[in-house]
Specification:
- It is a single chain.
- Helix content is 31%, strand content 15%.
- It is an alpha/beta fold.
- The protein has one domain: Alkaline Phosphatase, subunit A (3-Layer(aba) Sandwich), CATH 3.40.720.
- The strands form 5 sheets. The protein has an 8-stranded mixed β-sheet, with helices on both faces. Strands 15-16-17-18 form a 4-stranded antiparallel β-sheet, covered by helices on one side. The protein has a two-stranded parallel sheet with strand order 3-14.
- Strand 10 and strand 11 form a beta hairpin.
- The structure holds calcium ion (2 copies).
- The site of one calcium ion has 5 residues, from loops.
Length: 476
């Protein structure tokens, strides 16, 4: 009798192991909005409080040199989900989510990442901001909704321009009033359910996108007087080409000089840090739910932000530049087959997520993907990797980020070159020195030469505005 019991126990255990080994892993994708490297696994700001980012990073591998392909919400997300570079799709700025597939021949022929998973037996679901305005284009089978950027006070607190969402302050009273709270709750609910297929669950948070409003308790985590502003060199952009100062200043946001004059820089940084801590807490709720679910051991988690953000560096408070602050993003993978506590310094792009997730899930490759699987780096973060990350800001304005350099070439042929070995702040443009010609020549070879024109569906006022800016740059 005892022998039989042991026999059946062994058979049962073995079949569990085999079925787990062969079951397709679930995917839990967590998207952040306008989050730069101010999270503790990346160390971009010394006062950031992000225990849940740390927790996820300890469970998996963080990329410390990961970059967006477009430094703006809509085109970055379009690139992630189509698997196409902006230079392939022509989606350099916003197109309507429902028109993603109409933007160009290339986007028409693409298969959105979630559709690919669905075609291969996955249930797709999610909530919050995934594409620019949520989850249009039938991105997901089950969608928990999206409520824009949350409640706003009757009057702005600090920054009065009506042409930007930029403002900050302690508001509203409770987390429960924040859309991100409910986005996290959707994921918590889904993780508590039984699913009969492997799932692709996508969670899109809004913060720290402007307006920087979160409840007061998140501001109270850091004493305002102690807040450190980021490194700043007045007239930093004086050695950048003229076109840089034109195409990188499209938003009517505060300048650093304005913040200094009005004594508001610390306050603004404080508000961004408060938003980051708030969203870290929402992330923690989702990670708690995963860990206490039956899916804990068979789920790949990937966390990303759509682009970075300048909080005053280079006299800029915005995204929409091809500098480090605007292109660098958190990118963390965790789950079966991924090195725990790994740190990878190789360049990576958000565009690489699509092929990486396919490989991790054991699905076939999608030959249309412009990115490449990062699985070799997730197994061994030291793997040799000679693939730079590219960022596109309009046709033929391209940044190339290698482990050491940032090289930028604009459509008028002007250039910038920064050596991160000696100049992490990108203060000293080396492109004008003949000594750097061989480096520039080498890096320029990575830039696609046949970049797609901007799609005619890129939305007003961006398209016309862009052409006007570029014409102005040519005549500068
Ligand atoms: Ca964004
Ligand atoms: Ca400079």
């Amino acid at each position: 009798m005892m022998n039989n019991r042991i026999y059946f126990f062994l058979i049962f255990t073995l079949s569990c192991i085999l079925s787990n080994a062969t079951a397709a892993p679930n995917i839990l994708m967590i998207a952040m909005d306008d989050l730069n490297d101010w999270v503790s696994p990346l160390g971009g700001h010394p006062q950031t409080i992000t225990p849940n980012f740390d927790r996820l990073a300890e469970q998996g591998t963080r990329f410390t040199n990961a970059h967006c392909q477009a430094p703006l919400c809509g085109p970055s997300r379009a690139s992630i989900f189509t698997g196409l570079n902006p230079a392939t799709s022509g989606i350099y700025v916003h197109v309507k989510d429902d028109e993603l597939k109409k933007a160009s021949e290339a986007s028409k022929n693409s298969t959105l990442m979630t559709h690919f998973f669905k075609q291969h037996g996955y249930k797709t679901m999610g909530a919050g901001k995934l594409l620019h305005m949520g989850a249009g284009a039938d991105l997901l089978e089950d969608y928990g909704g999206y409520k824009d950027f949350g409640p706003k006070p009757a009057e702005r607190f600090k920054y009065k321009s009506e042409n930007t969402g930029t403002d900050w302050g302690a508001y509203p009273d409770s987390d429960f009033q924040m859309p991100d709270y409910h986005v996290a709750s959707y994921a918590v609910d889904q993780l508590a359910k039984t699913h009969d297929k492997p799932f692709f669950l996508a969670v899109g948070f809004n913060r720290p996108h402007v307006p920087w409003y979160v409840p007061k308790k998140w501001f109270d985590k850091i004493d305002l007087e102690s807040v450190e502003t980021p490194p700043y060199l007045k007239d930093d952009l004086a050695d950048a080409p003229a076109i840089s100062r034109i195409i990188h200043t499209m938003d009517p946001t505060p300048s650093t000089e304005w913040l200094i004059e009005n004594g508001l820089w610390k306050e603004m940084v404080h508000a961004y840090l408060a938003c980051v801590t708030f969203v870290d807490h929402q992330l923690g709720r989702v990670l708690d739910a995963l860990e206490s679910s039956p899916y804990a051991d068979n789920t790949i988690v990937v966390l990303w932000s759509d682009h970075g953000y300048h909080l005053g560096e280079k006299n800029i408070v915005a995204k929409m530049t091809v500098y480090e602050e605007s292109t660098q993003v958190p990118l963390i993978f965790a789950g079966p087959g991924i090195t725990e506590g790994g740190t990878c310094e190789r360049p990576a792009g958000l565009i690489d997520m699509y092929p990486t997730l396919l490989e991790l899930a054991g699905l076939p490759e999608n030959p249309q993907n412009d990115g490449r699987s990062l699985v070799p780096l997730l197994s061994n973060p030291e793997t040799e990797w000679n693939h730079p990350a590219l960022t596109f800001w309009g046709m033929n304005n391209t940044a190339v980020r290698t482990e050491r350099y940032r090289y930028i070439r604009y459509e008028d042929g002007s250039e910038e070159l920064y050596d991160h070995l000696n100049d992490d702040n990108e203060w000293h443009n080396l492109a004008n020195s003949p000594d750097t010609k061989s480096v520039r020549d080498k890096l320029s070879q990575y830039i696609p030469t046949d970049q797609a024109p901007m799609s005619s569906l890129c939305s007003f006022p961006w398209n016309a505005y862009w052409r006007e800016k570029v014409e102005a740059a040519k005549n500068y």
